[in-house]
Amino acid sequence: MRLLLVEDEPELGATLARVLERRGFQVAHRQSAAEALASLEHELFDLVVLDLGLPGMDGLQLLQRLRGRGSTLPVLVLTARGGVGDRVAGLNAGADDYLAKPFDPDELEARLRALARRAGLRDDPECGELRLDRGAGAFYWKSQALELTPRESALLAGLMERPGRAVTRARLLGLAFGAEVPAQPEALEVVVHRLRKKLAPTGVQITTLRGLGYLLQPSRGDED
């Protein structure tokens, strides 16, 4: 699922983006209402996480403008304003849910998954007969769970969010290694190689796109 995160604090926004990406979301981080509106005009999103305390046009005004356009995009308001009046104002402006800071990342993820289900969004990505069970945090081929390392799981989750579409090396490096910079430039290829071996019986393959990255797709009887 593609998520728009609107948070004006750079460090908090970057941290939230990393947390959500590690949990399988594709995150675009914007730091103002103007940037968010421009992105919403030209990009497609499934969910929005919106901070109310934005510079210039605040989060409530952005939300009201979004709903005034007829958008039904699910929006979770995330803010330090924890009073009942603030929560009511956010919900009346069109928010679908409200979470006050500080919060637990697990609760944020659970609320986003619930919003996605209510909106009819696919929650468990699939590619061929391979499926990611988000609730269990495991990958299944038919009814058989795959035994993967944490890095293999993170890389495969990133590929399964965009089956049949290229995922850049930079993004996959971030998912597999986080802030830890691999000592060897071929570290990502090593993880991909091991993952390919484990996926061989599943009928799903990782294809290398020179200069672009990798994509996941059902096998067609030929080798990459």
- CATH architectural type of the largest domain: 3-Layer(aba) Sandwich
Beta-strand content: 15-25%
Q: What number of domains?
A: 2
Helix content: 25-40%
What is the β-strand count?
A: 11
Provide the structure class.
alpha/beta
Examine the coordinates and then state which fold CATH places here, giving the name of the CATH topology of the largest domain. Answer: Rossmann fold
The chain-level mean pLDDT equals 86
State the major sheet: 5 strands, parallel
The outline comes out as elongated
List the helices and strands in order: EHEHEHEHEHEEEEHHHEE
Radius of gyration: 19 Å
Distance between the termini: 27 Å
| Widest beta sheet: strand line-up | 2-1-3-4-5
Low-confidence stretches: none
Brief overview:
The chain is of the alpha/beta class.
Report what the structure shows.
With 224 residues, the chain is of the alpha/beta class. The protein has 2 domains: 2-118, Response regulator (Rossmann fold, 3-Layer(aba) Sandwich), CATH 3.40.50; 126-218, Arc Repressor Mutant, subunit A (Orthogonal Bundle). Helices cover 40% and strands 21% of the residues. The chain is built from 8 helices and 11 strands. The strands form 3 sheets. It has a 5-stranded parallel β-sheet with strand order 2-1-3-4-5, with helices on both faces. A 4-stranded antiparallel β-sheet has the order 6-7-8-9, covered by helices on one side. Strands 10-11 form a two-stranded antiparallel ribbon. Helix 6 packs antiparallel against helix 7. The protein is elongated, with a radius of gyration of 19 Å. The chain starts with a strand and ends in a 6-residue tail after the last strand.
